[in-house]
Write a structure and sequence with these properties.
The chain has 254 residues and is an all-alpha fold. The chain folds into two domains: 1-58; 61-244, no CATH class. The chain contains eleven helices and no strands. The chain has helices at residues 6-12, 14-25, 31-57, 61-83, 88-113, 122-153, 155-163, 168-171, 173-193, 201-208, 213-244. Helix 4 runs antiparallel to helix 5 (88-113), helix 6 (122-153) packs across helix 9 and helix 9 (173-193) packs antiparallel against helix 11 (213-244). The longest helix has 32 residues, at 122-153. The radius of gyration is 21 Å and the shape is globular. The termini are far apart.
Length: 254
């Protein structure tokens, strides 16, 4: 694979300057936010690059497990920051869903689909886990947002249905269904356009590294199905269990 030189990498930042110039000209503000995000991205990726180099050169089951736990923990914290103020019970469910949903999917695909030996081989384990966790984090964020919006917009309807003796699970079915679909929509759209509209990152990386296109395609199909499975499990747990936190044990709105 052709390496990117320091000069070439520096040249890539020209488009950051173009964006900042447009933002300044149009007086849109947020220039410092863009600069901070770019600097943070660069520093974080360089640090991760050194860490991964060491881990890949020294494969160890504990390194892989610690990396997985750190990724999951940061994903849960980041989700809390993005969804804003949610009940404490909902936060517990988010953490549990992230660990259960992504954990099951990662192990399943590492062992049964990709057949990685040993299963904790960091060169495969960490990138695959990162893709599944990252997409699940986005799905959970969208799912919670849809759930909270649905509760806010339909509160009076829900209260009336409860007074008429409706069960919370039946009353919430339409709201949870919309929230679930909203959370899956980015993954669905990505799958719809993949291969025709754009070439996905994993497949592009393998091709640039010299892998045969058909081999890269098989990996990409598998990883997209893994991402879909991870997002589905995590979001389903959050939506189904999370919707119950709006009601007490007697089926009344809190």
């Amino acid at each position: 694979m052709q390496d990117v030189t320091l000069i070439g990498l520096t040249a890539a930042f020209v488009f950051l300057l173009i964006l900042l110039a447009i933002m300044r000209k149009e007086r849109l503000g947020h220039q410092w936010e863009i600069i901070l995000s770019s600097v943070r991205m660069t520093i974080q990726l360089i640090l991760v690059g050194y860490i991964l180099t060491y881990i890949f050169d020294n494969p160890n089951i504990w390194f892989s497990i610690i990396a997985l736990l750190l990724m999951l923990s940061f994903a849960v914290v980041n989700t809390f920051q993005r969804v804003g103020d949610v009940p404490a019970d909902m936060k517990k469910i988010v953490g549990l869903a992230m660990f259960i949903g992504t954990g099951i999917t990662i192990i399943y695909f590492i062992i049964l689909v990709f057949k990685v030996e040993p299963w904790y081989q960091p060169q495969y384990f960490i990138p695959i886990a990162g893709m599944m966790i990252g997409n699940s984090m986005t799905g959970i964020t969208l799912g919670i947002d849809g759930l909270l919006t649905g509760m806010k917009d339909n509160r009076s309807v829900i209260e009336n249905a409860l007074m008429l003796g409706g069960k919370p699970s039946l009353i919430m079915r339409e709201i949870t269904g919309r929230a679930f679909y909203q959370a899956l929509l980015p993954t669905i759209n990505s799958m719809m356009g993949m291969g025709i509209v754009f070439l996905p990152g994993m497949m592009t990386g393998q091709i640039l590294a010299g892998a045969p296109p058909l081999a890269a395609i098989k990996y990409q199909i598998a990883i997209m199905l893994g991402i879909m499975g991870s997002v589905t499990l995590t979001v389903y747990i959050v939506i189904k269990w999370g919707s119950r936190t709006f009601f007490n044990q007697r089926g009344q709105l809190k």
